[in-house]
């Protein structure tokens, strides 16, 4: 894919959420840098993921750090930061924890707030990340079954049941 | 499903407070179960497992005030899917996506729960007219019930966790659908909408995000979901609606005062076309029905209001095809629509 502004290949794929509507931008490194700097200048216009990132990271290094950040993946669902930026959707509840530093400025830009106020589900105080770990255990169990390691699979199954019981009480 | 086809649906009943301008009040909550990836990252078996867990809740029927029906969207034909979209019981996204997905609908169509849309659960409650408080009580009660049976993904600081960061926090979208034909005619709508955006309210068309404002229907909803409580979010939308109503009423008064003859002519022509057309598109129908609805509210024409409200829904493509009893191409739909309108208006006038 070519950059939207020149003939160079597009290496940055930015999804902007404007009024909740995703808009895709495909840019080369040079134009991504320009875009990120502009996003920083126009910060008060609209909540912008790229703008938030540009603020969070040092602007001049934003493009390079973004490239590094893009490679990071969630250990539970496997989504990379690149994929999240590209589709504008996260992969699992744990992403809010493993990409917390990056998601924080995004959330703050969208909502002008960083702290939930209002209703809470039961068991809210400690959060639900322990239970979210079932995603990883289930995936490992399926992998164990595939390679016919039934002993490991049954251990993992017991672990899942254990978390289930502990939380249901 | 065919039972629904004969009925009008809660949101177009045309009753409730301020119902000449406010069509319906709607609140939806986005919820995810903590032990599954978000829907985009779910395997087929994840999706089925989520469906099963939610479907099991139906059996606890003592908890539901009305009987609840469960529909598998992936096992449905396109016509039935489109039919549910037109009734605003499911979103376009749910209709058009892939894999195991379903919807729970109560017999009054006052709430629905979409399963495996963008989030695992999208719980919505709808009330006719302006009644967000009742919609909130209903959706909150369903949410409490689901929370007592399943485990929601939650973070102490981010709140309810959602696939898109734009919904995180309360996961709540409060929206009110308004009929604003006079503001459209006086070309003041743009101005009004711009000021709404400044206070973080979004304006959408009849069928939500990215849809056209068919028939001068607009939805006003909160943009922000984090950092404000549910009650504050309801209040924020509730406060702006009387202002919108007043703008629309002023525009209507202005039109009556300054251009009564043109307005009256427009309404009569709309009536004439709907009574006599031989073929008519769904867009034109919505547009003309909107003029008549305005005419009725201003006392320029007498038309049975429940019938009018019903026609907004029944003349849409999937509803029309359900009524005729099978798939029709566009040309045939336009002919059947014209016939149905002619018949309805001629009976209504007698």
Which range does the strand content of chain A fall in? 5-15%
- Beta content of chain B comes to 15-25%
Distance between the termini of chain A: 53 Å
Give the quaternary arrangement of the chains: heterodimer
Which of globular, elongated, flat, extended, rod-shaped describes the shape of chain B? globular
Main β-sheet of chain B, in a few words?
8 strands, antiparallel
The dominant shape of chain A is flat
Number of domains of chain A: 3
Provide the spatial order of strands within the biggest beta sheet of chain B: 2-3-4-5-1-8-10-9
Instruction: Tell me the helix content of chain A.
Output: 55-70%
3D structure, described in words:
The complex is a heterodimer of chains A (169) and B (350). Chain A is mainly alpha-helical. Chain A folds into three domains: 12-57, no CATH class; 70-111, no CATH class; 128-168. Chain A has nine helices and two strands; from the N terminus they run ββααααααααα. In chain A, a hairpin with a 2-residue loop joins β1 (12-18) and β2. In chain A, α2 (49-56) crosses α6. Chain A starts with 11 loop residues before the first strand and ends with a helix. The model of chain A is unreliable at 40-47 (pLDDT under 50). Chain B is an alpha+beta fold and 350 residues long. Chain B is built from twelve helices and ten strands. Chain B has helices at residues 2-5, 44-58, 78-86, 92-96, 132-149, 181-185, 189-198, 230-276, 282-297, 305-314, 317-324, 330-349; strands at residues 22-31, 68-72, 102-106, 111-115, 121-128, 154-155, 159-160, 172-179, 201-204, 217-222. In chain B, the strands form two sheets. In chain B, strands 2-3-4-5-1-8-10-9 form an eight-stranded antiparallel sheet, with helices on one face. In chain B, α3 (78-86) crosses α11 (317-324), α8 (230-276) crosses α12 and α9 packs antiparallel against α10 (305-314). Chain B is globular, with a radius of gyration of 21 Å. The two termini of chain B are 31 Å apart. The model of chain B has no long low-confidence stretch (mean pLDDT 90).
